[in-house]
Design goal:
- This protein has 881 residues and is α+β, with helices and mostly antiparallel strands.
- Helix content is 41%, strand content 20%.
- The protein is built from 28 helices and 28 strands.
- The strands form six sheets. Strands 1, 2, 4, 5, 7, 8, 9, 10, 11, 12, 13 and 14 form a twelve-stranded mixed beta sheet that branches. A five-stranded mixed beta sheet has the order 15-16-17-19-18, with helices on one face. Strands 26-23-22-28 form a four-stranded mixed beta sheet, with no helix packed on it.
- Strand 18 and strand 19 form a beta hairpin.
- The radius of gyration is 28 Å and the shape is globular.
- Bound molecules: zinc ion (ZN).
Length: 881
Amino acid sequence: MSNTPLLDDARLTRNEANARSELIEIASYHLELDLRDAMDLERATYPVTTTLHFTSTTAGADTFLNYMGHTVESVVLNGESLDVDQVAGSARILLPGLAEQNTVVIRSQSYYSHSGEGLHRFVDPVDGQVYLYSQFEPADARRVYPNMEQPDLKAAFHVTMIGPDTWTLASNGVETDREQLTEGIAQVQFAPTKPTSTYLTTFLAGPYAQFADTWNGHEETGAAPVDLRIFTRQSLVEYVDVAELFDQTQRGLTWFHDQFQVAYPWGKYDQAFVPEYNLGAMENPGLVTFNEAYIFTSRATISQHTSRATTIMHEMCHMWFGNLVTMKWWDDLWLKESFADFFGSKAVADATNLPGAWQSFAHQRKAWAYLQDSYPTTHPIVADIVDLEAARQNFDGITYAKGAAVIKQLFHYVGEAAFLQACQTYFERFAFGTAELPDFLEILEEVSNRDMHEWSAAWLQTSGPATLHATVEPTGAVTIRQDSTDPLTGETVLRPHHIFVSIFTLDDNDQLVSSSESEVIIPTGETSVIVEDLTIPAEQPRVVLVNHHDQTYAQVAFDQASLEAVTTYPVIDPHSTAIATVWSTLWTMVRNATFSATSFVRAAAKLANSIDDVSMHDRVLQQAVAGIKEFAPEGQRKRLTKILSTALMDGLVQLEPGSDRQRSVARALAILSQDTVSLAAEITFLLAGDETSELSPGLQIDDEMKWLLLSRLASLERIDMIRLDDELTAAHTATNELYYRTAVAALPDQAHRTALWVQVYNGVDAEGTPLSNAHLTATALGLSASQPGFLAEHFQALLEGLMFIWESRSNNLATRTINGLFPMNHKPIKGGPAVQEKHPVVVSIDAWLAQYTDAPAALQRIVVERRTDIVNRLVAQATKF
Ligand SMILES: [Zn+2]
């Protein structure tokens, strides 16, 4: 803390950032991170020396650096030592009286992180080795070194790292020099980066195992060959699919060069798989970091491989969208994320042999978007981001998935050639700089000769999805009508849609197949269009399916005949996007209480095994389980559990032994068995089984499956702590330790669970050591995984402590804590759906919201979204269908 409150202000506003970038231009950073003592866990900090060379447009002006380290030891500005007590606070360092050309040198101590933000330190339980990696987006580089933390102040970074000479030491640039500093300690220098934003800088240190290969370059663009490396912890080496990962990386690099026609600008391409990672991955130029869960230590389904490849391609797309051309400020975060999400799926579909990329896009990514867009907290894709805290909250389903869905729609709207030409021009025009939305739109107008302002106003500056209804007229014509009110403004927004409408009828095998299809364009501003050329059969069953190939972003409403047909007969579609549209529509209807969870579960039990696409099959089963536990009235749960578990047990035997879908069935059964004593015997049997079991032929009981089952048996008190301890001792890996924590927290001993609740609430374990991000979430998961009433009993204490939680830890840890401890499932009160807003739980949430109107917007947002989820579940349970 300091005398000047501003120096403790961790919020950086857009206005401050704009003022700073008008004043300052940064030539370079020289960073030295001394990690030689990182293995000494008693040490909480490490020394950092930071030198910035920068110019100021106004001599005599003041500016500041952002820094959230442990201590600032010295600040020397243009050769003069400043009084640290006067200029350094907990979040900023003041630089007064600038010259035109400035050099500032800061010596400081920064924290090792346990939250996955900043420089994270992890100890491998297998061998005691210490691993470090950094994660900075949007604004955590300032936890490692003092800087001007805003994306538009790009600079060349000259990095030096010091650490044990047996370690991998890596950063964005290639290693250019390595010398022995003292015995066992090396000092490594890296090539200076091209102009880069602070959030994209990165550091990796530890005894990481390393694999190497090369990408051969690209003749058309003159791209030189690129060295490829993969890093993982030593104890994961045996699980790395080296050939697959390099193959996808090589295919991706070639594909993106074909698309963008701009040579890869970042020298090398490293991919590090790191522990306790908060996200899927991060696109640091030249050194991408990935969640280590992508190194599959248990049997992974093909859809998990597809999903990993999609992440690899997403990050690769960022080498252009985001890294080469960066958004000026976080308002335009979508300018990189939606493109990366769209091209990530497209690259997997076009450049690899993996199936299901667009199907997952349709029913996973877009489901995330529709959910986020249904909350009162929704916002336009182009958001108004006033400060860094708001920026952090914006990494959501709107920015990523809705943005990507809208880009997919735009791709079809302007056509592939114009779209790719616009990308290329954008990279050439703004290379190594920053851009804003109008810059991209202007280029699109140039290349497509279309007015993009109307499109942008309709799609990017409004909220909420449209609902597309199909009505069959007595003449046999079909009318498509869009219903679209912006939930934030209350105004009608009539967006353009380019879609396919199909009729599905029964074939000889009693399956619904597409029998006629029509391409339809709903122009901007139009409510409805009539589709003339569809053949509607007089007899039923038949389905009118709007948005068949999932080209637009809109919810779909079924007419009664279509609804009956899709819940009775399997839909067969070679591209599976029709199946995605059907099931995601049904699930949305369950959430909105316009279709009963009971009917959904019955339909899923009957039809799920007809879905070939592995990830969609998996998802429908998971939704069926959630339908029972969260949305169905309590009185029906027992029967529904019986219906679904019977279908799942049948699936275990009938689906191909050892197949992905059989595995999904086993997972769903395990989750269904949570708190369900009637399934304890089945779970015990599965756990004891092996690949020769008659109940589950071919099913591998590997670590993931074993712990999933153990956790359920723990929640049912069929096994005890001794058993769990023994299982962990037998194979004490980092992943198993997380499973173990979940299983232990699921044991229904009240005193023990309450003690764990307190640990999560305070963010520290019984010894007072801070819980890491992963350990915190694993424990909270176990607490919610048995005894539905347990979290509710502690709800008042949680509400009273929300501000404490928010202020006592990083946003990420606070969000994990609150979401982990928030009780989501409650019994409705009497009086039907209309009175559920008066449910005592909802009333206490509303009281909190009324009392804490000045709570940080990010915290309020979490509470409002959980409230919406709770009300939706109560209303669904209370609705008579
Ligand atoms: Zn991204």
